[in-house]
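Usage

Read records sequentially. Each one opens with the input sequence:
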Amino acid sequence: MPTMDNLEVIARLKIRPGQLEGFKTQMAEILRATREKDTHTLRCDWFINEDGTKCEVHELFPDEQGLIEHKMNTMEATVALFRDYAFDHNAAIYGDVSQGFINLVTKRMG
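and closes with the structure output:
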C-alpha cells in the first residue's frame, strides 16, 4: 500500500516504428524478472498509447534500496529494450531520496 515514504517512478518512452510486438515481448521479460527477483517492488505497471508509439511505466518502491535492487535485477532486459525497441526515455522520481542516491543517479547520467 502506498505511503508518503514510498518512491514512485514514472517513466515515459517511445516505441521504435515497427517494433511494437518486440517491445511488448521485452517488457514482459522485464516484468518476469521483476516478479522472480525483486523483493521490494510494490508495483510495476506499463501502459501503451492507442497508436502504439509511446509507453508510460509506473513503479512503486518502499525506499531507494528497492529501486536500486529493481534496476540491478532488470538491467540486462532493460538494455535490450532500449537497444532494440525503445528510445527517448525520461523519468521522474517522486519521494524523498538521500543525497547519496542523488549523487549516484547524477554520476550515472553524467
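Summary fields computed downstream for this record:
- The longest strand covers residues 7-15.
- Residues 13 and 89 are 4 Å apart (CA to CA).
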